[in-house]
Amino acid sequence: MRTGITTMTLDYGQCPAWLFQRMTRLGRVIALAIISEFGSEEFLKRLADPVWFQSLGTLMAFDWNASGLTITTTAALKEALRGLEKDVDVFICGGKGKTSRKTPDQIKIWSWDLGFSQIDSDRLIYSSRAAAKVDSALIQDGFTLYHHSFIFNKKGQWAVVQQGMNTAIGRARRYHWLGSHVEDFIEEPHMGIATQTRLSRVLDLTNKASKDNKATTLELIKEERSLYRNLQVLAKPKSAQHFKILELPGIEFTNHPVEKEFLHPQLQKTINTVITTKPTSFEKLLMTPGVGGKTIRALSLVAEVIYGAKPSYEDPARYSFAYGGKDGTPYPVDRETYDKTLTVLENAVRKSNLFLKEKNVTLQTIETLHRKHTNLS
């Protein structure tokens, strides 16, 4: 099963009320059918799979490649299971914009209602915040997060579906997490990544190749004087070339996007906070209040240019959107994954309590997807 990132075009406007009602009804019967047969853990795994999630959104009659699919599908599922959460063992928190910032409070409310210990409640809240911080600060791909959904069950198993937008290129990128597969929040937590467009240069500190850069960054924080001196050196491009260990083109020092940030008062304030708190791990550094993309970029660049600890600049996207292409670009159609996805959806619809007409229309949609698959193959 693939979990990770998928990229869509930005979509503006709102979902029509009649369509949202249909999506809610269809989402309810599919969710109930899957959960009743496979359990809530399997449903979380499905949501954490961008291929399956995209197929579900398409089946629920939303634009297949629009950013609104993410927001509307998660909102429809949240509404579909409202009042049934304890029975189906699925609790959906968060959402778009301001609602996403209510995620910790919603987790707390459900945790109290379910009798979770303070430790278990805090762990879920931490997982939610860590997922958001990693995708906004450690994977710097130019997409600003504006949607965050945290889904969990009574066992404390969880999944995250969140999305960022890049208005400059008119794209949205969706990030999927599955708690049971996260061994380390800061090192390749996504099990697989799918995207329509891979970017030429992305600072990815979750890549294993960035391990030395993160370790060097942590050491830098312990040396307060050296750190500030290095930041001042890099803020002056010409002098920086006399101190660098790496052989990088001069353009790296005259046009680097974060040079103007080095001596910014807010950055200095944040670095002072970090030095004072003395984080003992890179994850604790990341989770320090106030630490965001700018702080991470600045520290990472010092580690790279002054000490030669180069991070990964490869876009973490590994899989193309959906199931591949008929010409094998960027990879051949994955027939097994495609068939499994559609079969699960088909079985769920057949076992649902939809009216016969609605059921037939939905099954015809799945059959259409099957035919498209056959043509691609």
What are the SSEs and their pairings?
Elements: E1 5-9, H1 17-38, H2 40-47, H3 50-59, H4 68-80, H5 85-88, E2 91-96, H6 103-114, H7 118-138, E3 139-140, E4 144-152, E5 158-166, E6 171-178, E7 194-195, E8 203-204, H8 211-222, H9 224-234, H10 237-240, H11 251-254, H12 265-277, H13 282-286, H14 293-305, E9 319-320, H15 335-350, H16 356-376
Sheet of most strands: 5 strands, antiparallel
Look at the structure and give the mean pLDDT.
79
Task: Label the structural class.
Answer: alpha+beta
Give Rg in angstroms.
23 Å
**In sequence order, what are the helices and strands, one letter per element?**
EHHHHHEHHEEEEEEHHHHHHHEHH
- Widest beta sheet: strand line-up: 1-6-5-4-2
| Strand residue percentage | 5-15%
Q: What best-fitting shape do the alpha-carbon axes yield? A: elongated
Our measurement of the CA-to-CA distance between the termini, rounded to an integer number of angstroms, reads 20 Å
Low-pLDDT segments, ≥5 res: 239-256, 319-333
Number of helices: 16
| Overall number of domains | 2
The total beta strand count reads 9
Can you give the helix content as a percent range? Answer: 40-55%
Describe this structure in words.
There is one protein chain. Residues 239-256 and 319-333 have low confidence and may be disordered. This protein has two domains: 5-200 and 316-320, no CATH class; 208-305, no CATH class. α1 packs across α15 and α3 (50-59) packs across α15 (335-350). The chain has a five-stranded antiparallel β-sheet with strand order 1-6-5-4-2, with helices on both faces. Strands 3-8 form a two-stranded antiparallel ribbon. Helices cover 50% and strands 12% of the residues. The protein has helices spanning 17-38, 40-47, 50-59, 68-80, 85-88, 103-114, 118-138, 211-222, 224-234, 237-240, 251-254, 265-277, 282-286, 293-305, 335-350, 356-376; strands at 5-9, 91-96, 139-140, 144-152, 158-166, 171-178, 194-195, 203-204, 319-320. It has 16 helices and nine strands. The two termini are 20 Å apart. By secondary structure, the chain is an alpha+beta fold. β5 and β6 form a beta hairpin.
